[in-house]
Write a structure and sequence with these properties.
- By secondary structure, the protein is α+β, with helices and mostly antiparallel strands.
- Helices cover 28% and strands 18% of the residues.
- It is built from 7 helices and 11 strands.
- Strands 3, 4, 5, 6 and 7 form a 5-stranded mixed sheet that branches.
- It is globular.
- The chain starts with 44 loop residues before the first helix and ends with a strand.
């Protein structure tokens, strides 16, 4: 395993407020039979981000037209499967340049999960965060997923997708957090909406599509807590309260969002309560079966235990 080269010392210990071991693989981040491919992936955040972009092409933001026959790549929920698909197309280390058209098609969730998997492989606690980025389009917050790594005694949040900083995001590899941060967690956005402090209709997939608003933010709060505790599901997966009418169990969502924000602030009590609720409440956690929708208008019933899916409509 390589040494972390971020200028900050890696801390292999569980973070002070943590109640789960973020250095241990989840079923989704486990590279399985392809683990050796991650041995030589750099763990400095710049190098890691470069490899993530080299392996995975964003299916909506690619600079070229991606082949239609690779469209199903976006449903590869397991890192082991993502690496397996790369192996089918490339017989070279992950850092060797790939043509964009031959990369695995995915999105921010996949870039993030790749980074999380590589960091965990090298013993660095890491997790994915779900929320909204305000630095791609002025006046709009896109749904987004970014990684965090426990480095130098703190969670360092970074975005592997931008190749360089901008005025809206000066340093993608060391993102600011807190008040006025360029990335808002879903819980923070939900609480802002509930207090009447933000316009929920400016939070969604893209200004050009109708997927936005309060219900959209609510669903991302549920996805945020799932990702926090190792269920790094696709952004179009549905389970429990996800996809239910907006007024269903609003009080529960309020409480979960409050616990997420408190846990981010270092409250171990909040983290413990949040984990307990997640494990016990079927409205929050996915069971064995979930529904998988798709940006390409198909849907499937997914068995998370056998890792199989049955397409139910097109």
């Amino acid at each position: 395993m390589s040494t972390v080269e971020t200028g900050l010392a890696a801390d292999p210990a569980v973070p002070e407020a943590g109640v789960v071991d973020h250095a241990a693989h989840s079923p989704h981040s486990d590279p399985g039979r392809h683990a050796a491919l991650l041995d030589d992936v750099p763990t400095d955040l710049e190098g890691l981000s470069r490899v993530a972009r080299n392996v995975i092409a964003h299916y909506r933001a690619a600079e070229v037209d991606l082949p239609e026959e690779g469209r199903d790549d976006i449903h590869l929920r397991w890192v082991e499967a993502i690496l397996g698909r790369d192996r089918e197309r490339h017989d070279a280390p992950l850092s060797v340049p790939r043509a964009e058209v031959s990369r695995v098609q995915g999105c921010c969730r996949d870039h993030t999960l790749f980074c999380v998997a590589a960091l965990r492989h090298h013993g660095v606690p890491a997790r994915s965060r779900i929320g909204f980025a305000g630095y791609f389009t002025q006046g709009w917050h896109h749904d987004h997923v970014v990684p965090e790594a426990w480095l130098g005694g703190r969670w360092m949040r970074f975005d592997p997708e931008p190749t360089e900083g901008t005025a809206a995001l000066p340093d993608p590899r060391n993102m600011a957090v807190g008040e006025g941060a360029p990335f808002l967690t879903a819980a923070t956005a939900w609480r802002g909406y509930r207090r009447g402090e933000l316009d929920a209709d400016r939070f969604g997939v893209d200004p050009s599509v109708p997927h936005r608003g309060p219900e959209f933010i609510r669903d991302y709060v549920l996805r945020e807590v799932a990702h926090r505790f190792g269920d790094e599901l696709l952004l179009w997966d549905v389970w429990g309260l996800v996809g239910s009418p907006l007024q269903t169990d609003v009080a529960l969502v309020d409480e979960v969002a409050q616990l997420l924000v408190a846990a981010d602030g270092g409250s171990r009590d909040a983290e413990v309560e949040l984990l307990g609720r997640y494990r016990e409440d079927e409205r929050l956690r996915p069971g064995r079966w979930i529904q998988r929708f798709s940006p390409f208008d198909d849907r499937a019933r997914v068995d998370l235990v056998t890792r199989t899916e049955t397409v139910t409509s097109v």
